[in-house]
Design a protein that fits this description.
Layout (H helix, E strand, L loop, with lengths): L28 E10 L5 E10 L2 E8 L2 E8 L4 E6 L4 E6 L3 H6 L1 H11 L1 E10 L2 E10 L2 E9 L5 E6 L5 E9 L15 E2 L12
Parallel strand pairs: 6-12
Antiparallel strand pairs: 1-2, 1-11, 2-3, 3-4, 4-5, 5-6, 7-8, 8-9, 9-10, 10-11
Length: 202
């Protein structure tokens, strides 16, 4: 069986891999289009679907033509990566290296836990009033995030430094979401994590 490469979200600071994030992140119930951009305005842009309900969220993405679903349980600190074509999934801690590479929300939480977060006021992102925070480490600016006051969830994340990356949630809908979307289907089987050499470092 051919191994699938993990999705790619760079970790801004390597030190953050070694630290445990204890900051809870609570959320309302909504779905949105998750637009990620690599390399600034002229770089690569991808769009995925995200659903959030309470302490759980689901990201539907595509890697090399294959559908990938990421289920995150923030209360249990568990991330499950589903491969529907094979009816298989991997399970790992949400602060595991592979999880951080896959997930901008866990990456920003980890970075926030080891750095300093400065409140920069409020801005409106796609109709939602957000608190804007600059996250720094030892004087170096690492990330900026915009957290919705109503949804209590980041609607925009921007990394600083040599590699420019951004994530923004668009077309937000607060319609009810089925609980089953956040669970692994009964007919899926589990497999071990990817070898360390396959974890991307950008």
């Amino acid at each position: 069986m051919q191994e699938k490469k993990p999705l790619r979200w760079s970790i801004t600071v390597v030190l953050s891999i070694m630290l445990v994030c204890s900051i809870p992140m609570f959320a309302a119930e909504f779905s949105a289009d998750m637009v990620e951009q690599i390399g600034g305005k002229k770089g690569e842009t991808t769009s995925h679907k995200i659903c959030v309900k309470g302490m759980k969220y689901r990201m539907e993405q595509e890697e090399e033509g294959q559908e990938i679903i990421i289920l995150v349980d923030m209360e249990e600190n568990v991330t499950r990566v589903l491969m529907p074509a094979e009816k298989m999934y991997m399970e790992m801690a949400s602060d595991d290296l592979t999880s951080l590479a896959n997930d901008p929300f866990q990456s920003v939480k980890k970075t926030e836990s080891m750095g300093e977060s400065k409140h920069l006021g409020t801005e409106t992102i796609n109709g939602y009033k957000c608190d804007k925070y600059l996250i720094s480490y030892e004087g170096t600016e690492l990330m900026t995030q915009w957290v919705s006051k109503k949804l209590n969830f980041p609607l925009k994340i921007v990394t600083h430094g040599s590699e420019k990356r951004s994530m923004e949630l668009n077309n937000i809908s607060e319609d009810p979401i089925d609980d089953a979307l956040f669970e692994v289907p009964d007919d899926y089987t589990t497999r071990g994590p990817l070898p360390m050499e396959e974890v991307p470092f950008d």
